[in-house]
Amino acid sequence: MYDVTSSKAEEFISHEEILATLEYGEKNKSNREEIDRILNKAREKKGITHQEALVLLDCDIDEKNEEIYALAREIKEEFYGNRIVMFAPLYLSNYCINGCEYCPYHAKNKHIARKKLTQEEVVKEVIALQDMGHKRLALEAGEDPVNNPIEYILECIQTIYGIKHKNGAIRRVNINIAATTVENYRKLKDAGIGTYILFQETYHKKNYEKLHPTGPKHDYAYHTEAMDRAMDGGIDDVGLGVLFGLNNYRYDFAGIIMHAEHLEAAKGVGPHTISVPRLRRADDIDPEVFDNGISDELFAKIVACIRIAVPYTGMIVSTRESAETRKKVLQLGISQISGGSKTSVGGYVEPELEEENSAQFEVSDQRTLDEVVRWLMEMNFVPSFCTACYREGRTGDRFMTLLKSRQIVNCCHPNALMTLKEYLEDYASPKTKEIGEALIQKELNVITNPKVRQKAEEYIANIHNGERDFRF
Ligand code: SF4
Ligand code: SF4
Fold first, then answer.
1. How far apart are CA 100 and CA 109, in angstroms?
2. In this structure, are residues 385 and 420 in contact, taking their beta carbons and an 8 Å threshold?
């Protein structure tokens, strides 16, 4: 029985409700009247239900699809402007006891080099990331209570926040680790993490169990209810994601919107981010089995429909996607991207040897952070290294309230420009710096509040003179 506020996975992600949603989408995909009704509701920019979102995803009327894309672009512009927040993943350990069939870190893969960073290696990796200009990391580790216990993760977080190197500083550490207990989530909260990210992979219980035949991750309910436990442990910001291509995309699309609805209804605050990874080739993974044919066009439609369904949730795309695909989805709703990523353990200091094969997936976008930053600016986006909200305590419902009232925009734009200025001063190549300085001057004029603009100009001059870390 479907119950959005239930604490049980099979009730808030009810299989029957998803089947009814899929049927509703199929029935209405050419129904102009219903599509117009949904679009009119969506134009209020307060979100739409999972059923309504699926009708838009299924919509097969070209002219209505154009309206869907236009609305997604409008919502993106209104809530997130032309800013794109930058981050990088940091792989701590690829030891894993799970049997996920689509991931090369699965326990039975014997030809992958297993590695776990020591604290000294963590320092080296983080310094390499700081020297690129990163301020925001997502820590990644497999599930292994012996090799990667929670104490190891906590120690790494402490090490990372403690690193002082030139003007570099990691100001927000997000965590992507296996589902765990309320007690452990509380420990992560106390260690000062930003967002807790956990991908569901697929919401289809039977397929989920088949794809995760062994290890603790096999437990669908424990995995699906992890975000509730994280919030019970005091973590305000959680990040959802499904691995598109693993299962029927319509099923997982409905599932992820239902999950967002559940968190809002049961915990009072929806997800902070939604990630949209698509399956990539990797070691020991048969691409024939897992290529469920998510075309670039369909991928863009998924991004646009999520943007419309949950306007208040940031959206993330990684370097799994090519520059070309990233360009397309940036306009439709993506607000965070990674840049200069390495998906192997220790990969930032020592590019890995081919025979080691320890990357989790192939990176499509192989450009350096400097190249990605310049590319964004050439398209008139403002790359942002901002972490202000988290550090000002604007998390969870405080963040959402500000975002919903559009007030966040008064902080984001100047913060983006100031953190970009820091990047240009400390890390950018001459060409990137030249483009960036001109962009900052142009974008300062976008700030409408004269007091805020004046303050931002002052702070930017101070950054030029060597000071750091200003924020609104
Ligand atoms: Fe382990 Fe995560 Fe890979 Fe599964 S997806 S094998 S849990 S690292
Ligand atoms: Fe993100 Fe807050 Fe910075 Fe805006 S001000 S970019 S919402 S951290």
1. 11
2. yes
d(CA 84, CA 80): 8
Centroid of ligand 1 to alpha carbon of 395 (angstroms): 28
pLDDT on residue 295:
86
- Look at the alpha carbons of 310, 225, 85, 396 in this order and tell me if their dihedral is positive or negative: positive
Give the mutation target among 143, 153, 222, 275 for probing the ligand 1 site: most ligand atoms within 8 A of CB.
Answer: 143
**Measured from the CB, is residue 98 less than 6 Å from ligand 1?**
yes
Dihedrals phi, psi of 114, to nearest 5 degrees: -90, 135
Extended strands (E) in 149-237: 172-176, 196-197
Ligand 2 atom 2: residue of nearest CA: 389
For 246-269, the pLDDT digits (tens) are: 889 999 999 999 999 999 999 999
Identify the nearest ligand to the CA of 105 by its number.
Answer: 1
How many whole angstroms from 163 Cα to the centroid of ligand 2?
Answer: 23
Residue 140, strand partner residues: 91, 176
Nearest CA to ligand 1 atom 4: 100
Structure-block tokens of residue 155 = 């120690």
Query: Which atom of ligand 1 lies nearest, measured to the CA of 107?
Result: 6
468: Cβ contacts below 8 Å, ≥ 6 apart: 167, 422
Per the prediction, the chain carries an average pLDDT of 93
3-state SS assignment for residue 298? helix
Phi-psi region of 47 (alpha: psi -120 to 50; beta: other; left: phi over 0): left
CA 331-392-449 angle, to 5 degrees, is: 60
Q: Is the CB of 96 within 6 Å of ligand 1?
A: yes
* Angle of the 323-332 helix axis to the 62-80 helix axis, nearest 10: 80
R_g of the chain, CA atoms, integer Å = 21
Q: pLDDT digits over 28-77, tens only? A: 999 999 999 999 999 999 999 999 999 999 999 999 999 999 999 999 99
Tell me the ligand closest to 93's alpha carbon.
1
**Residue 223: CB within 6 Å of ligand 1?**
no
Task: Return the ligand 1 atom nearest residue 199 CA.
Answer: 5
Cα gap 211→62, rounded to integer Å: 35
